[in-house]
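User: Can you help me understand a structure? I only have the sequence.
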Amino acid sequence: MKQAMWKKLVCAGLLASAAFFSGCGSEDKVAVVDYQRLEAESPRIQSIEKEIGTKNQEISDRLAKEQSSLSQEDYQKKAAAAQQERQIFMQSKQKQVQSLIESQAGAIAKEKQIGIVMHKGSVPFGAVDITDEVLSRINSSASQSQTASSKAQ
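Assistant: Let's start by predicting it. Here is the structure, written out as tokens:
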């Protein structure tokens, strides 16, 4: 009998400590950002996407010019190198967009004492949507960088 009581107390203690350490009942707020909306409405992000399109077109044009003057084997090598160049450029631009969004969302989260910021589709309900604020900051930082570059010229 004493042994059964002891096991119940140990189990209750383990459950209580697990709940305590897992943050059960924590007051951290969750925010979401709608990445698709940012891509559709932010001129700065659209500019980065346009750079990707321009680079893709440049690579395609370069390959088309070289195709007639190269053997099939050499052309295949050039095409593989061009594909790798395309992927590296696209990844760097995607990281640039990701970094831009994360930095602005992080600043807003810190100001509003939000514990975590996630993609909008990841959280079904109960989160604060900060997409408008992130969009506003991205657009204002884009206009500030354009003003600074025009002053430098």
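Now, to help you interpret it: The chain has one domain: 26-145. DSSP finds five helices and three strands in the chain. Let me know which part you'd like to focus on.
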